Amino acid sequence: MELPKAINNIPVSKIRDVLSLKEVFSSLLSFLVDKDLISVEVCEHTPMRMSHAYKELVSGYDVDIRQLLSKRFNCTKDTVVITDRIPFYSLCEHHLLPFFGQISIGFITNEETIGLSKLPKLVKAYSQRIQIQENMTEQIGASLYSQLSPQAIAVKCEATHLCVSMRGVKSPMSTTTWFTTGNKKKIRELKRLLH
Ligand SMILES: [Zn+2]
Hints:
The protein is elongated and about 65 Å long. The longest helix is centred in the N-terminal third of the chain and has 18 residues, at 40-57. The chain contains eight helices and seven strands, in the order H-H-H-H-E-E-E-E-H-E-H-E-H-E-H. 42% of the residues lie in helices and 26% in strands. The strands form two sheets. Strands 5-2-3-6-7 form a five-stranded mixed β-sheet. Strands 1-4 form a two-stranded antiparallel sheet.
């Protein structure tokens, strides 16, 4: 089965080398705050540290999802697979501030399953991008559904957004999103198990 369209169009990473990034962050710092107000240490070293950090934070764009999910195993039909509370860290596309939390994945097999270590890798590949929570939840579920063709799949994502907690309304709330697809009765079963 083909990967869903949105997932096929993964943008190729446009990250330049860390030295170019360093110049960008250096300019950003001097726009944000007068250089006289920050230490020489910050001026000299923070832009390079930011370059390395941000390069890592968006490294998920470099992961080939199709290849990540390519090794599959035959298994008994109707096997329920649940992986609970995989931690993730991502950057919101509106403010480039972190949002983070946990993702639980459940599916009911048709004929195939996948090495369970691939699930945290899949979460990392989609969360280490510039994201919104709703799309990330959908991309994780839809990519698994397209490659494993399970009878049903449910992905639950609970997240705290720093753009809501530390600025704006400053409300430290948690937001939950779901992606489900497949047989409706089996989706209900999965949602009960992921509750
Ligand atoms: Zn935001």
